[in-house]
Amino acid sequence: MLSLRIGRDLSKCMVAAGRCSLLQLRLPTCGTNLIRRSYGDRGNTIGGGRDGGKGDDDDDGFVKPGNYKVFKDDDSSVILDVEEERALLDAQLSADDGRSGFEEIDPFAGFDVSRGVSGVFEVEQLVEVLQKNNASNVFVASIPANVRYVDYIVIATGRSQKHLLSIADFIHKLFKKKRRSSDNIPRIVNKKPIDWIALDIGNIAVHLLTKDTRKNFDLETIWSVGEKFDSHLNRPVDSLVTLLNEHSFSLDNLEPVDFEHVKTH
Fold first, then answer.
1. How far is CA 176 from CA 72, 113, 126, 179, in A?
2. Is 203 helix (H, G, I), strand (E, B) or coil?
3. Are 49 and 63 contacting, i.e. CB atoms less than 8 angstroms apart?
4. What is the pTM of this model?
């Protein structure tokens, strides 16, 4: 029984070995055909080359679909470096500017850029600048001779804080355009929040305010009729403040004690 079992196992091994040898002989041809048919084009080509799989035209043996496109060095565009790209772009922009007749916009067109007589700005010129920059409720007051540090006070309202900055910046730039070398460049004075901007441009003091801030400080009343008629400065005094003032005393006449000359008891 043992010898019979060994003989059967031996015969099975020989059959299996024969099948493996047959499979190895058939693999090169069969395997390649299967791969190329799997990746070939829809026209049932085998090779996948441009010749329909016959292998006569640049068939490199790789599996490719039948509708592929070959790119060659001659078909590629020129790749420029950074400096060459910039030079080409500048040349194109210059050509476009020449064709379109492009001209740079002058931000001061329509404004008198010559210096005034009484100062860099004449007050009429400044009012025109404010109006063209959409400032509203422009107020001009002539300063009395006894308190004259400028000739005029000009007050205007802006729509927002950004609008105030825009107006002040334009006046500042136009001032530098109009001034002489002996004229000092003004400084834009403001505090955060930027709801009040002041500029001293020599003969004119300019105040730019938002609507609420202008209403609160009421600069027009101070400079037009004086502080005597200013409702803010002359409003009734709080009773508590009056009481404190009546029962307080000044320390101005007090002197420190000289302890060296004080007699001890």
1. 62, 9, 14, 5
2. coil
3. no
4. 0.50
